[in-house]
Give the backbone structure.
Amino acid sequence: MKHKIVLASQSPRRQQLLADMGIPFTIKTLDTNENYPDTLEANAVARYLADKKADTYVSSLHDDEVVITADTTVVVDDLILGKPENAEEATAMLQQLSGKMHEVITGVCVCTKQSRHSFDDVTKVWFRELDPDEIEHYIQTYRPFDKAGSYAIQEWIGMIGIEKIQGSYFNVVGLPAEKLYKTLKAMKIF
């Protein structure tokens, strides 16, 4: 490995995906303001935030380090569904996703002191109509308060509620693994 990889994420899902890809990494997290301009289109927010997070790290990178930053958004009806603050917000989000297609967009930035490559990946996800008791059960059992859109595809609600996806499954989990691998190879990180 030519570079030491730093994953700038507290997400256990992103950490697990990178580990499952066989990529050695360390974790480093810094606080980043996740505000974005109101004028930014919903489908551009994830990439904007991934770049913004990378800006926080680049000055502290060593010459042999590369940092990976990412942000995932859930977009339905041109609205971004963030992380719910409580059960009421989670319920409202899942009701909004019920019976519809939405997009999961993950923006990624791979950055060294010398170069930067940003990209995003979009996966379309279709939920069947969810019963109120299914939504309540999921929220009470899985407490999805750290998840954009109030759900994780790999959990119960994804297993019983998602009819189909178009695009990368791993993108919905939190990291477009195939695109990330190709980017690291193209940048000669390994």
Notes: The first helix runs from residue 12 to 20. The mean pLDDT is 96. Residues 4-186 form a domain with the Maf protein fold (CATH 3.90.950.10). The beta strands are 4-7, 26-27, 65-76, 79-81, 101-111, 116-127, 162-166.
